[in-house]
Automatic annotation (TrEMBL), chains A, B:
<dbReference type="InterPro" id="IPR016171">
    <property type="entry name" value="Vanillyl_alc_oxidase_C-sub2"/>
</dbReference>
<dbReference type="InterPro" id="IPR016164">
    <property type="entry name" value="FAD-linked_Oxase-like_C"/>
</dbReference>
<keyword id="KW-0274">FAD</keyword>
<dbReference type="InterPro" id="IPR004113">
    <property type="entry name" value="FAD-bd_oxidored_4_C"/>
</dbReference>
<dbReference type="InterPro" id="IPR036318">
    <property type="entry name" value="FAD-bd_PCMH-like_sf"/>
</dbReference>
<protein>
    <submittedName>
        <fullName>FAD-binding protein</fullName>
    </submittedName>
</protein>
<comment type="similarity">
    <text>Belongs to the FAD-binding oxidoreductase/transferase type 4 family.</text>
</comment>
<keyword id="KW-0285">Flavoprotein</keyword>
<feature type="domain" description="FAD-binding PCMH-type">
    <location>
        <begin position="36"/>
        <end position="216"/>
    </location>
</feature>
<dbReference type="InterPro" id="IPR006094">
    <property type="entry name" value="Oxid_FAD_bind_N"/>
</dbReference>
<dbReference type="InterPro" id="IPR016167">
    <property type="entry name" value="FAD-bd_PCMH_sub1"/>
</dbReference>
<dbReference type="InterPro" id="IPR016169">
    <property type="entry name" value="FAD-bd_PCMH_sub2"/>
</dbReference>
<dbReference type="GO" id="GO:0071949">
    <property type="term" value="F:FAD binding"/>
</dbReference>
<dbReference type="Pfam" id="PF02913">
    <property type="entry name" value="FAD-oxidase_C"/>
</dbReference>
<dbReference type="Pfam" id="PF01565">
    <property type="entry name" value="FAD_binding_4"/>
</dbReference>
<dbReference type="GO" id="GO:0022904">
    <property type="term" value="P:respiratory electron transport chain"/>
</dbReference>
<dbReference type="GO" id="GO:0003824">
    <property type="term" value="F:catalytic activity"/>
</dbReference>
Length: 470, 470
């Protein structure tokens, strides 16, 4: 990058808007996955949409590649450079909450707002912004939109796409596309914002969004149920789906090996250690944002589950604190995997009615491929989304496990294909899944996806190599 | 159209797949609006996706324009020819229900399925397909998707877009784009199906879809409340939104002139004629697909509404029959307008919190423009969607009213703009709103919409002149 370009960028972005050399701290170089590490040649930190547009024009003219970056919490290498010539465009200074309308149930926020701050601002007005993720204390709303984030509340509120009413986007050539009207219905042909939701910054840089808000939950019942098999958990799901209907706000599957991992980190949990004897567990949330109290009704429903032998043991949270402790176990099992170092991670979906046979099949296939592998299946099975992860067999760690990963992923993806599933339910594609995605696209799909990229970014200056194989 | 093209189409489509000359009945020439009438040069009636692809290739090679057509229930001239050289591509024979999975909450249907048949097939399996429209007995699911239909249940279930999990589409050049996987989560970059939802057949022909299903409502309470102003109706909305939260499945505003019209057609309604003395009414549905009964709780909530002087009178349906009779009034007021002949129709949205001032302003502006105009405002105000219609002043009917319409529409749209609203909340653009839409697009929006059309349909053979000004 020439000195001339640096000074032009400096003019547009101001002194705190451009980092080069040793001013570039470590955080701009990696995401949470830890799978990728590369320092950018510069970090652009615009504070207005016009600065984003100005900086992008300069970069395009200079033939530079720009990687839009949110809160660094991605898991597929989408938001960090993969070669030192790339620049990072961080949205962190575009972090104003522009408007909240609690009656109209909308709010308009800039891309760099931290998800937790968005949720808190809504809550302060008595309304709910529902997206809920482990990373919510540091991920940014622009990144949530660019990756069409999922999380714990998808069953009730859908993926991020459903909550986006309007977007402000800077196109790769610096043109600004803005429609932030706070409208719940607006049916005027091609819905341009859909081009940018989930495309990981490859087609434009999201700078602001108008979001849909919801009534706050008033009654929440949280239940932990222990089952004798994944099949029984899915039967339980069928019961809850039929009886609780749209009160069902979360239905998480946790298999025994996951629970054992969580207990490794902390065994003073509200769920006794003995529960790990049961092979599969359901963490269920039933909630409503109005109407009568649900407690007695949920107790009756659980009684039905026991009568029908769907659950063998269980706990109903008697307080907010206890409900939080149930969810804490789910967080702990993720943390425990992270601490084990390199392991197989996945994020796949299948039709909900295939969940139990899929988990059985994939466990069998992976275990046959590498005996001793500790397969951990858990996830948002009410959405058909399961994370099939695996810890290496005893004695095989880090670099000695690495060579097995590509084949394990391939085998896993083949099982997903055989169940008509998706190799990415919610984490996106980024760098890590682009080859697997490419080989699964039908001809016309691949052509159309590439043609849209070519249309919007003919010089491939924005997030090159993300989603699409170069 | 040459004899050679006709015989090639005949070969692909078979004897019952192609209508020409006097075999083309009236129904292919007009939609429900009655605003447009033009017979096509031929009607293509394919019965498989491959026939659709084959026919489109022949038409493109011959330089013919094709108008995809569903159940003829559109209101903006999108689905009928506007010049006699155009062909109609009717999806009516693609009407198989391919699969239903009540546990997985999905179903796969062909585009020509009648909406009511889709709803009935879901109901037979104990699940709900929620889209509900006046036209549901004749509109087709492909048309519902191509127009991103709205209707009476948007408040709870969203527009059609939200219920589309997968699509099979034939592109203008005959390529088939198919992804009908029954997945609730699938996050793999550009979501191609979004290009075809709401674009009224301009980018491709939808031939099948995988739809999202929902639990069936178990408890439904329907309430008619009479208020002293539109402001009070919106205060009532704020109360219900806050207290009933996601139980609120419909909140319709009906102003007094609409009610009078309904009584004109049939005054033996369950709502007494005297209620028309109140200037504004709310038709509210509160429902749940599980959990405890809602009746007592709704009674208590209505008592609060009376205590706070938000409602002056009201009726709570004591039976399904009575609930249906409330909804029948809403249908009658639409029928009554239709019988009056030519009148001003609109379908606009504004931020929900601007609804009352918007209705006051637009009524004032239209009445000033043409004194004696009978302005009727009603709609799904819980979605921010209102139909501001108007009957001509006494003595001004049909052709003598016609010359006033363009200016009235322009004035109406200007008020919509001043409230940051949309000129099409749910009916779409078609032929009738394309000029109004075009003048409202920002430069980059217009460029991008046209570039996507050019990309997918470079010869403009599919639904030409719909949405986009030629």
């Amino acid at each position: 990058m020439g000195q001339d370009t640096i000074s032009r960028l400096g003019e547009v972005l101001g002194p705190s808007g451009l980092l080069v050399g040793t001013d570039i701290t470590e955080r701009y170089s990696r995401d949470w996955s830890g799978d990728y590490h590369c320092a950018p040649s510069a970090v652009l930190r615009p504070s207005t949409v016009d600065e984003v547009a100005g900086a992008l024009r300069i970069c395009r003219d200079a033939g530079l590649s720009v990687i839009p970056q949110g809160g660094h919490t991605g898991l597929v290498g989408g938001g960090t450079p993969d070669c030192a010539a790339q620049l990072v465009l961080s949205l962190e200074r575009l972090n104003r909450i522009r408007a909240i309308d609690p009656l109209g149930m909308t709010m308009t926020v800039e891309a760099g707002c931290i998800l937790q701050d968005v949720k808190d601002a809504a809550a302060a007005q008595g309304v709910l912004f529902p997206l809920a993720l482990g990373a919510q204390g540091s991920c940014q709303i622009g990144g949530n939109i660019a990756t069409n984030a999922g999380g714990l509340n998808v069953l009730r509120y859908g993926m991020m796409r459903r909550s986006v009413l309007g977007l402000e986007v800077v196109l790769p050539d610096g043109r600004i596309l803005s429609d932030l009207r706070a409208l719940h219905k607006n049916n005027t042909g091609l819905d341009l914002k859909q081009l940018f939701v989930g495309t990981e910054g490859t087609l434009g840089v999201i700078t602001a969004a108008t979001l849909r808000l919801y009534p706050q939950p008033k009654h929440i019942e949280t239940v932990w149920l222990c089952c004798n098999s994944v099949d029984r958990v899915m039967d339980l799901y069928a019961l809850f789906q039929h009886e609780a209907g749209d009160f069902l706000s979360a239905f998480e599957l946790i298999t025994a090996p996951c629970l054992e991992l969580a207990f490794e980190l902390d065994d003073h949990q509200s769920i006794s250690k003995e529960t790990a004897q049961y092979p599969a567990h359901a963490l269920v949330e039933i909630s409503s944002s109005g109407g009568p109290d649900l407690k007695e009704w949920v107790e009756d429903l659980i009684a039905v589950a026991f009568e029908r032998d769907l659950a063998a043991d269980g706990f109903m949270a008697q307080s907010d604190t206890q409900a939080k402790s149930f969810w804490r176990i789910r967080e702990l099992m993720v943390e425990a995997q992270q601490r084990r170092g390199l392991h197989l991670r996945s994020d796949v979906s299948v039709p909900i009615s295939s969940m139990a046979p899929f988990i059985a099949k994939v466990t069998e296939v992976l275990s046959a491929e590498l005996p001793g592998l500790n397969v951990l299946s858990y996830g948002h099975v009410g959405d058909g989304n399961v994370h099939v992860n695996a810890l290496p067999p005893e004695g095989l760690t880090g670099s000695s496990f690495q060579p097995y990963l590509p084949l394990l992923v391939e085998k896993l993806n083949e099982v997903v294909d055989s169940f008509d599933g998706s190799i990415s339910a919610e984490h996106g594609i980024g760098l890590s899944k682009r080859a697997a995605l490419d080989s699964r696209l039908q001809g016309p799909q691949r052509e159309l996806v590439r043609a849209v990229k070519q249309l919007l970014d003919p010089t491939d200056c924005l997030a090159p190599g993300r989603i699409l194989v170069p």
